[in-house]
Design goal:
The chain is α+β, with helices and mostly antiparallel strands. It is built from twelve helices and ten strands. The protein has helices spanning 3-17, 21-32, 37-44, 50-89, 108-121, 136-139, 150-154, 174-182, 222-237, 290-295, 312-320, 333-339, and strands at 126-127, 133-135, 166-168, 187-196, 207-217, 244-251, 254-267, 270-273, 278-288, 304-311. It binds 3,4-dihydroxyphenylalanine (DAH).
């Protein structure tokens, strides 16, 4: 076998084994490129005798034709192979059953935050937010809490640094401070959000939710506070009349301060809100202390007002008959499926909720 024939055979073998079209292209250049095999061989013709020339030229042409045919069919073969593989992979089997489709549920806490926001927005409150990671000043000092006030221990604070300057907010009251410092009175806001204390039992979890309320204007008094809370509780529990009492209390950030209880009774193991001779504490409130106003750059000779703090989870438990607070945060899908709310079935109005 001549060198030429050997080389042709080599190319044929190479082409035979190729599995990728890019390599076919490389070999095509090797054979048919400007300085490729075929041109190199043609160049040799000049050195041959007339007879030899004829024979050699015809064998080059034959080889050229053969190699071209092989390359073309190899290319087709690889294109088809690729196409078939793609078709195989992307095949849609229309006979397969559809995928199970689960609609998520709205968590009772989110639901209650929406309901409360709705109720307060109807009487002109807007919604503010503050960060979960707070500084000691906004959480305690600006709220008139003295350095060694027992409230600091009472709150069982999660501090985030050794100097006890950064913490997980123990209540939503620091949003009062942030709101007043960044704006100008009057203020009429609510601030729902997560709060944290080192506490855990059937009615306490280390993370829980509160809603802060603040109304500061020139002539706001305790009568407004009472009217506002009375309206809120009636709307929230969807009752026409509510038994409610203000019990004197103490908070560093309000003077006077009160805790609000609502009347209830138990009937057939169910809690009936609004009537009866039992009392249930649901929130803390009071008239904002002048020191707080001063710390927040509000002139307390001109402006005054009330604030309140509501435990959201507690309200959700009461309204929707959920006994264990801890179950709220266990992320058990079965629980959420039972107590959660259908996102497609939320009424346009917060009343008459269906589950
Ligand atoms: N921050 C209080 C707490 O976490 C709740 C509270 C009471 C907020 C009275 C207020 C208020 O704004 O006026 O226990």
């Amino acid at each position: 076998m001549s060198d030429f024939e050997k080389k042709v055979l080599e190319f044929k073998n190479k082409l035979d084994q190729i599995k990728d079209n890019k390599l076919v292209e490389t070999i095509r250049v090797e054979i048919f490129g400007k300085n490729g095999f075929i041109n190199q061989e043609f160049k040799k013709i000049g050195t041959l005798s007339a007879d030899e020339k004829k024979i050699f030229a015809s064998s080059i042409n034959k080889a050229k034709q053969e190699l071209q045919d092989i390359i073309r069919s190899k290319e087709n073969e690889l294109i088809n192979k690729e196409l078939n593989e793609k078709l195989e992979k992307e095949k849609i089997d229309v006979t397969l059953p559809e995928k199970e489709f689960k609609i998520g549920k709205i968590h009772p806490v989110s639901q209650v935050i929406d309901e409360i926001s709705c109720i307060f927005s109807e009487i002109g409150f807007s919604v503010e937010e503050g960060p979960d990671v707070e500084n000691d000043y906004n959480n305690f000092t600006a709220l008139n809490t003295p350095e060694n006030h027992p409230a600091k221990d009472m709150h069982d604070t999660f501090y985030l640094d050794k100097n006890m300057k950064t913490l997980l907010r123990t209540h939503t009251s620091p949003v009062q401070v942030r709101t007043m410092l960044k704006g100008k009175p009057p203020f009429k806001i609510i601030a729902p959000g997560r709060t944290y204390r080192s506490d855990s039992d059937q009615t306490h979890t280390p993370m829980f939710h509160q809603l802060e309320g603040l109304h500061i204007d020139k002539e706001i008094n305790m009568g407004h506070l009472k009217g506002c809370l009375n309206y809120f509780i009636k709307e929230f529990f969807e009752v026409k009349k509510i038994k409610m009492r203000f019990r004197p209390s103490h908070f560093p950030f309000t003077e006077p301060s009160a805790e609000v209880d609502i009347g209830y009774r138990i009937e057939n193991n169910k809690i009936i809100i609004g009537e009866g001779d039992k009392w249930l504490e649901i929130l803390g409130c009071g008239m904002v202390h002048p020191n707080v106003l001063k710390n927040c750059k509000v002139d307390s000779k001109i402006y005054q007002g009330f604030a309140f703090g509501i435990g959201i989870d507690r309200l959700a438990m009461l309204k929707y008959g959920i006994n264990d607070l801890r179950s709220f945060f266990e992320c058990d899908y079965r629980w959420l499926n039972y107590y959660g709310f259908d996102p497609l079935d939320v009424p346009t109005n917060y009343r008459g909720l269906s589950r």
